[in-house]
Write a structure and sequence with these properties.
alpha/beta; five-stranded parallel sheet; four-stranded parallel sheet; 22 strands; disordered N terminus
């Protein structure tokens, strides 16, 4: 081989180019190595964010994954209504991030994201951090629109008429109010319009308190005022009310269901009442000082009022430019990539997911699909065709369980439900099946939390 000093200038340049090419071949990272060193940042440490971070590391342990969450302890919303009847405590709702950090090597940053530089792929925080990313996943949850009703506000919710739909101090306040309500008092629950988090949740909350009042305050009344005329799990939930609380089903429901199951007709009203939208149930105004709620049909004097107001994507989503005019976040259906900001994915309650409900289970399954899509795309491979699931468990009473279960895929460009009519606990389910449904709900609360955070 010729020594470089003996070569002419053109030959020397060619030789140097050849050697630099060999050096580059030896030292340049492979596509797999580049993927391994990629940095994925997840903003929001709820169900969606925690599951995404965990499954990114499960799918590729060499990825660098950072989870940014403003609260050091997560308070789970699913199952939180059981604080109201004393079945669990507020401490039982607390979930920590220790396992995600220690077992999976996820970097946990307790800070508040305040901005996004999409061109530089950097998020900024209140703690003056600048955190770069190759992919960003945002799971911002919901924001409650307290001002949707005149007389209502976040300040009112914190002190007099709690919502508690985002669990925390308001949940504890509502529990104190309900458990201390005078004998024969009236509890009014104002259900939200669609779309909202946890479709069966408001009706489970009313049922659990009706059950509690039967023992502790048997002359109390529970009234649900509702802008809607139907809700998910309505037939199976109301059948439970009919059997447990002497609730008389609306005539249209009773006629429809009577062909499948025996419906009891009780003399006089029971403890629980549901006022639908077409019967004047839509909430209009809150008077916290006089403890009154005005609906389209009447003004109700109450002892305790629980308002679940309308909601949209968490405030952070708008701050980062991820929402559209609906207040929610439009996404590519296959990967939940934002259609507003590149290299950003939005999952959970904040996303526009067509037929998928806004539930913890939905956020969990979306997170797994997104984690797989990111890992594959970073490796230069196409994301697999997505398939999602959702199951919402609910209680009509502590031993009366029910559910809705669905499977989803993309049909004609939208996320559509593809399972058949058997979505719910059968109306003719046996007493043992119903009791097992309650046991499944309690088991799910434990295993689901483990899947997301442990």
């Amino acid at each position: 081989m010729n020594h470089p000093e003996s070569l002419s200038s053109p030959q020397r340049r060619a030789w140097l180019g050849h050697m630099l090419g060999l050096l580059a071949t030896c030292s340049a990272p492979s596509l797999a190595f580049a993927q391994e060193r990629a940095h994925v940042v997840v903003v929001g440490g709820g169900v969606g964010g925690a599951t995404t971070a965990k499954y990114l590391k499960l799918f590729n342990p060499a990825l660098r994954v950072t989870l940014i969450e403003r609260h050091p302890v997560y308070i789970r919303p699913y199952g939180s209504s059981e604080v109201l009847n004393g079945h669990v405590t507020m401490a039982d709702l607390e979930v920590r991030y220790d396992t995600l950090r220690e077992r999976y090597g996820i970097e946990i940053v307790i800070d508040t994201v305040t901005g996004l530089d999409a061109a530089a792929r950097v998020v900024t925080t209140a703690g003056r951090r600048r955190i770069g990313y190759d992919r960003l996943v945002v799971s911002p949850g919901i924001e409650l629109l307290y001002d949707a009703y005149p007389g209502y506000s976040e300040a009112v919710a914190r002190t007099a008429v709690p919502s508690g739909w985002i669990p925390g101090e308001q949940t504890a306040l509502l529990a104190r109010q309900l458990q201390g309500m005078r004998p024969g008092g009236v509890f009014v629950l104002a259900a939200p319009p669609n779309p909202y988090r946890c479709p069966p949740g408001p009706y489970e909350r009313a049922a659990l308190m009706t059950e509690w009042f039967m023992t502790h305050n048997p002359t109390a009344k529970v009234i649900i005022v509702d802008p809607k005329d139907a809700f998910v799990t309505d037939e199976t939930m109301m059948l439970g009310w009919n059997r447990l609380y002497r609730f008389n089903l609306p005539d249209d429901y009773a006629k429809r269901m009577a062909a499948k199951v025996e419906i009891q007709r009780h003399p006089g009203p029971g403890m629980l009442t549901w006022v639908r939208g077409k019967e004047g149930g839509r909430p209009l105004r809150i008077d916290a000082r006089r403890m009154r709620i005005e609906t389209e049909g009447e003004t109700i004097q109450a002892d305790v009022i629980n308002v679940i107001p309308p909601m949209h994507a968490g405030k952070l989503a708008a701050t980062l430019g991820l929402t559209d005019g609906s207040g929610f976040c439009p996404v590519d259906r296959r990967t939940f990539a934002s259609t507003m900001v590149p290299q950003v994915h939005v999952i959970g309650d904040a996303s526009i997911a067509d037929a998928m409900p806004k539930s913890g289970f939905s956020a969990n399954t979306q997170a797994k699909v997104v984690a797989r899509a990111i890992v594959e795309e970073l490796a230069g491979r196409p994301a697999p065709e997505p398939l999602w699931e959702n199951t919402c468990y609910a209680l009509a009473g502590k031993d009366y369980g029910l559910f809705v279960a669905d499977v989803f895929k993309i049909v004609d460009g939208k996320i559509a439900r593809i399972n058949g009519a058997s979505r719910y606990l059968p109306l003719d389910a046996s007493p043992m099946q119903i009791k097992l449904g309650a046991r499944y709900q309690q088991a799910w609360l434990r295993t689901f939390t483990q899947d997301c955070f442990a």
